[in-house]
Amino acid sequence: MSDLTGLTIVEARDGLRKKSFSARELADAHIKAIEKGRALNAFVTETPDLARKMALESDRRIASGEARPLEGLPLGIKDLFCTKGVLTTAGSHILDGFKPPYESTVTRNLWDAGAVMLGKLNMDEFAMGSSNETSYYGPVTNPWRRKGANTKLVPGGSSGGSAASVAARMVLGATGTDTGGSIRQPAAVTGIAGIKPTYGRCSRWGIVAFASSLDQAGPMARTVRDCAIMLKTMASHDPLDSTSVDMRVPDYELAMTGEVRGLRVGIPKEYRLDGMPGEIETLWQKGIAWLRDAGAEIVDVSLPHTKYALPAYYIVAPAEASSNLARYDGVRFGLRVPGKDITSMYENTRAAGFGREVQRRILIGTYVLSAGYYDAYYIKAQKLRSLIARDFDEAFEKVDVLLTPTAPGPAFGIGEKTDDPISMYLNDVFTVTVNLAGLPGLSVPAGLNDEGLPLGLQLIGKAFDEGTLFRVGEVIEKAAGPTSRPQAWWEV
Amino acid sequence: MSVDKNTVKRVAKLARLAFPEERLEAMAGELNRILAWVEQLNEVDTSAVEPMTSVVKMSLKMREDKVTDGGQPVAVTQNAPQGEDHFFAVPKVVE
Amino acid sequence: MTTAVITTRTDQGPLIDGATGKWEVIIGLEVHAQVLSKAKLFSGASAEFGAEPNAHVSFVDAAMPGMLPVINRYCVEQAVRTGLGLKAKINHSSIFDRKNYFYPDLPAGYQISQYKSPIVGEGEVIVDLPGGRAITVGIERLHLEQDAGKSLHDQHPELSYVDLNRAGVALMEIVSRPDLRSSEEAAAYLKKLRAIVRYLGTCDGNMEEGSMRADVNVSVRKPGAPLGTRCEIKNVNSMRFVAHAVDYEARRQIDVIEGGGKIAQETRLYDSKKGETRSMRSKEEAHDYRYFPDPDLLPLELDVDWIASIQKTLPELPDDKKARFMREYGLNAYDAGVLVAERESAAFFEEVAKGRDGKLAANWVVNELFGRLNKEGLSISESPVSATANGAIVSMIGDGTISGKIAKDVFEIAWTEGGDPKEIVEKRGLRQVTDTGTIEKAVDAVIAANPGKAEQAKAKPALVGWFVGQVMQATGGKANPQAVNEMLKAKLGIVG
Ligand SMILES: [Mg+2]
Ligand SMILES: [Zn+2]
């Protein structure tokens, strides 16, 4: 009972069922860890009272034999999910004081399954960022540090608070959202697992929109199996989301047989970038070897349009965002900065409410959609998207799953890359293709580099074949060895 | 295609972002760098390619014509920075 | 929406005099017709008119963060139905786009509309004009889109109040080609379009409540010249105003051009109190709507069988009904046109005409019934005299039981006091007298009383009319005027 925060979801679930500890004890342990971990700035809003109340209800249900699938499991929620009556900021000043009178479908699913909410997690503003440095609530610090150094590192982004809180054992698991890599990339650089499901698998209803055709919610947790358990509950068909698919959610744990013999694993040669750090190449080779040793067949494949994914993304995502963020106008919710007339009220509110990166993307998005440029940029990018999706279709005729690195490098220092947007965008170079094609992608913790920083491997699957990703992911996870945990240097 | 200060100004106006004059130049530079970078897409001949219209292969979901929502003016307006009698209030609009 | 710029009209319209010669006015209409649905286009909030502020608003309509649209199937069906009624091409695949602009009554900062791929393509409307002339007006397209909310500017000195009850209500925007050539044609087109959607039941056509309103595009040109620069007059909400706005705007444009000026393409407002159009300052600034497909929605794919099943349920539309009335009842084009203008009046007429003389029934309904309803400002469904009762009157005129004059009296009694016309006639002894003995007695009496006039009548046969009047008076109007006329002629010795 001394280390209730060190448990996996699987372990905590078993412990609660066996009544080794109560949901209330589990919640309290995490509430304490959150208080001690405030230096990481992972939370925007802590909800300890709510957590205790939900935990008590869980204990009651466990006692009366009415336990639900996630009964009593304390989780953190990315602050992009609207939570009824609880401040929801999207990491932005513009949503000042916004308390949604509704609950997002994904979080509703979690609470209905008995999960306990610990609070709302910090993130890049409107999920626009790869390092959690664009948050109005300040950057999140990665619990991991380079060996022998105390440089503060970024936790990746945009789900940086989710990644940091899971890695620092403040929550058992967290929700994230992934538009271009925002679950997988932070998962990789904080040594945890995270999956972006197939587009349409989780409802987007009640999640603050960034880029509607790319956004997808997913779980982040310390093991692949924990992600599988969370996704089973998070995913659902939602009649309120026109892009949510009406398809049964399988029990992903059943797919996790530990068996990959005969499975064809594709290695896309275009993911071998010029100037890629040696440690990433080494990691990739290790992953290939682990799967080959486990009996999988390794197949070289080509995804010829890979290099165009990032530029296409930086047209499509800002275009959609520029429109999605038009509703933040100081009229119905959030911040209002007065002006001499309605137009200047809009302009002042939005200039004060949105941070630099968000403004930059709104301007790009507005520009590429504007008269005379639409075809050259937006249509062109959507055509590239068709080609990228076709590349994957062709590859999946030959293989069952693709293996790539998740991120082009380990966590970097806070402030190191903020000056150059393009170099920041390149953090998503391996993840963004998957969003453009709507496919599922799982990041699996795959060990530490020479400096002691975590690295991740990415598995890309066929649409709605998350089960295979979990199965293969767990094999990699096992082969990589037990996850080490970061030194709790942040504890006060 | 190169973005100048006036273009930034025009686009900022369209996007309703107050933009200080002194930041226009710098922003034009940033946008130009990003646009120059995305223009590598022009290397690809896409004349025979259809633009993607949806990532999910499914037909558009439809709802029945039933009133299932509304009747909650308080919840709708309670987050508004300014309002009265369940109206949202904004600086006077001249038509 | 962008208006069509290609006119299908080849004939020249009526011309307007200017200082420099004749001018032709070119008009196209974008009509917004509210779909007669219970719920909104993309949310489950009520589409009903006239609720408390923001009571018919869902979080989707208020564009709260994370809210998503799901389309109302019934609205799609009504758009298809209307498209079929306009004999238009139904597009099996169409796309919903976002039209981006900032306005307080547009919560999301964009309107979901259809831009490049509308649900309905080209069609046509035949518009009957006075004098038996008819024109064919091309329909460019019909698309589905969301209505905006409402801003109230007169509640507070410094603030406008926003009510989103209308925000998200389903509209069909029906865009005509610039095929109209006068205010009269524009009003007649709108009237016809209104009749069609009301027949189809897809829109109630209630212009006072705003469920149907028109953006009127007006330009002028010298006959034969290319189309001039047009101005769009927004949200005109009655046929009379449409006609006024066109006349005012055409004159204004002619004056501007003849004064050496140029027409600026702009959005204008029609002020019904002042009877003028004026530039809308708030919409002056350059527009760039940045249309792109709404990523929250997928392309709308329509099933061919579904379209066919809607086609099967279409009612007989005004043009077909008019042709049938002329054919089956022998009506003239004018009467038939008047009767089919409203579905209810056409149905009423058919009930009156059933098993009777159609022409007589049409005459009666158009002249007597409609005249009286108009005078009282009542609609056909509010008529105090039922179709059965009107039918009974028509029957009695037809078989000579009562004269046309008595029929009016019977109608008047039925209107004010109610009751069955047959009983009214019987009880009040209004039956026409056809018995020759009775008539002869009255004729003889009148001739005997007026020997001088009887003498004159031989030379001046027109005087017979005076005698008829006397006999009718003497018989309390019940004598058959035909019989009286003939008997008088014989007795007075008038030939022919
Ligand atoms: Mg218009
Ligand atoms: Zn419209």
Structure overview:
The complex is a heterotrimer of chains A (492), B (95) and C (496). By secondary structure, chain A is an alpha/beta fold. Chain A has a single domain (7-487), classed as Amidase signature (AS) enzymes (Alpha-Beta Complex). Helices cover 38% and strands 13% of the residues of chain A. Chain A is built from 16 helices and 11 strands. Chain A has helices at 9-17, 23-36, 48-63, 105-112, 160-167, 184-190, 224-234, 252-255, 278-293, 309-324, 342-353, 356-369, 374-398, 421-425, 432-437, 466-480, and strands spanning 43-46, 74-78, 116-121, 173-178, 193-196, 216-221, 264-268, 297-301, 401-405, 441-448, 454-461. An 11-stranded mixed β-sheet of chain A has the order 1-3-2-4-6-5-10-11-9-7-8, sandwiched between helices. The radius of gyration of chain A is 21 Å and the shape is globular. Chain A starts with 8 loop residues before the first helix and ends in a 12-residue tail after the last helix. The model of chain A has no long low-confidence stretch (mean pLDDT 97). Chain B has 95 residues and is an alpha+beta fold. In chain B, 35% of the residues lie in helices and 9% in strands. Chain B has helices at residues 5-14, 21-38, 73-77; strands at residues 62-63, 83-84, 87-91. Chain B has a two-stranded antiparallel ribbon. In chain B, helix 1 crosses helix 2. Chain C is built from 15 helices and 17 strands. In chain C, a hairpin with a 2-residue loop joins strand 1 (15-18) and strand 2. Chain C has 496 residues and is an alpha+beta fold. Chain C folds into 3 domains: 15-311, no CATH class; 318-427, no CATH class; 436-492, Orthogonal Bundle (Arc Repressor Mutant, subunit A), CATH 1.10.10.410. Helix content of chain C is 38%, strand content 19%. Chain C is elongated and about 95 Å long. In chain C, helix 6 packs across helix 8 (358-376). In chain C, strands 1, 2, 7, 8, 11, 12, 13, 14 and 15 form a 9-stranded mixed β-sheet that branches. Chain C has a 3-stranded antiparallel β-sheet with strand order 6-5-16, with no helix packed on it. The longest helix of chain C is centred in the middle third of the chain and has 20 residues, at 239-258. The chains are: A alpha/beta (492), B alpha+beta (95), C alpha+beta (496). The interface between A and B is large, with 71 and 55 residues. Strand 1 (62-63) of chain B pairs parallel with strand 3 of chain C. The structure holds magnesium ion and zinc ion (ZN). The site of magnesium ion has 3 residues of chain C, from loops. Zinc ion (ZN) binds at residues 1, 32, 145, 173 of chain C.
